[in-house]
Design goal:
With 145 residues, the chain is an all-alpha fold. 88% of the residues lie in helices and 0% in strands. Bound molecules: protoporphyrin IX containing FE.
Length: 145
């Protein structure tokens, strides 16, 4: 179970980062070049929301099946916070990914309420780009790549 979930989580992460980079660049270009917001922009924003929420769910399943949680029970929070690997997998990575997906969700729902193109692109550019930076800051690069 754990290996399968880790495999899915690991490969789905490529899709999450790819679509979030596309959505972030698309909205920044749309905002700075005063583009007209259209169906394709909406689809990119929605697809990013869906793909990142799926990864969030897979992440929770992984969190509760990964061996790290047992380590947490054995060594306690103090030791977890002192150990960089345990701290990343048990605290920093889950927390920062939840914050990133929350930013994507807020950005998506706020941009839908805007009526014209520029404010729509602006909201998406701000929330999706910050979410991307938050995600990149706590990806376990050394085990992933
Ligand atoms: C939503 C955006 C997320 C992305 C892009 C993401 C990405 C990744 C990546 C690239 C890895 C490394 C996989 C590997 O070593 O091959 C990983 C590992 C992990 N992720 Fe996530 N993750 C996300 C959300 C979450 C969430 C919300 C949780 C928990 C609530 C979580 C829990 C974990 C755990 C426990 C591992 C370590 C698994 C292991 O090596 O045993 N992830 N994640």
């Amino acid at each position: 179970m754990y290996e399968t979930v880790l495999f899915i989580h690991s490969y789905w992460a490529y899709l999450v980062l790819l679509i979030l980079i596309i959505a972030s660049v698309n909205s920044l270009v749309g905002y700075f070049t005063n583009k007209e917001y259209g169906a394709m922009n909406f689809r990119i924003a929605l697809f990013t929301l869906i793909v990142s929420h799926i990864q969030l769910l897979i992440g929770f399943v992984l969190f509760f099946t990964a061996p790290y949680l047992k380590a947490f029970g054995e060594v306690g929070m103090g030791e977890v916070m002192r150990d960089p690997t345990l701290r990343l997998y048990i605290v920093e990575h889950p927390l920062m990914m939840i914050i990133a997906v929350a930013l994507i969700t807020i950005g998506y729902s706020k941009h839908k309420k805007k009526l014209t193109s520029t404010p729509k692109f602006k909201i998406l550019a701000i929330f999706y780009t910050i979410a991307l930076l938050v995600m990149l800051s706590r990806i376990p690069w050394n085990t992933w790549l």
